[in-house]
Amino acid sequence: MGDKYLTLSELNVEGQLLGFVGDEPGKYKYLQLAVPSGSVQVKLPKELRRSLTSLVPGEQIRVCGHSKLNPHTGKIKLKAYRVTSMGVCPIPDLPPQPKARIMVCQKSGCMKRGGKGLLSELEKTLCDRGLLDKVKIEHTGCQKCCGSAPNCVLQLGKKKYKNIHPDAIASLLENHFT
Question: Residues 122, 169: contact at Cβ < 8 Å?
Fold first, then answer.
């Protein structure tokens, strides 16, 4: 058989550590790195994960690894084999990561049942209350709740709220950020 990913090149990138992604400390699978062109997510091999618990967000790091391409989907995966600290040096022009996100279904069934109106009403309500810059609105595929379309999910940290009105979303966000 073989690996479905094709190795593209060696990876040698420096940037600011934004944080780790994973279930629990010491078992993080990915690290998020801020680079001048945006942010990237790099997979960490198991043997490297435990040794990186001393790194703190905001720290400058250098990541060496490989980049691989899935020829079927066009997605590129980054995997580290070495991560070294270069000290703390904050990058001042990085936007803060939003702690809340709203995922709105953009499939045809939801769009026909008021998805466009929901999205515009949501953006208008958040803009009126000054919350638009604190929330990330994501367009998603099918959320598998087609019977209650249009679908949107508000995620505040680890809590998720489904099928709520834009005014209720704005109220929850105001309470969350105050």
Answer: yes
Residue 37 CA from chain centroid, whole number: 16
35-45 burial string, b = 16+ CB within 10 Å, else e? eeeeebebbbe
**∠ at Cα 16 (24, 137), nearest 5°?**
70
- Pull the structure tokens for residue 150: 């249009």
Q: Who wins on pLDDT, 28 or 25?
A: 28
The Cα–Cα gap between 104 and 140 comes to 6
**Of 20, 100, 11, 12, which Cα lies nearest the Cα of 58?**
20
pTM for the full model?
Answer: 0.45
Query: How large is the angle between the packed helices 116-128 and 166-177, nearest 10 degrees?
Result: 40
DSSP classification of residue 150: S
Q: Nearest-5° angle of CA 105, CA 108, CA 112?
A: 95
Percent of the chain's residues with pLDDT above 90: 0
Residue 43 CA to residue 80 CA, distance in Å, equals 6
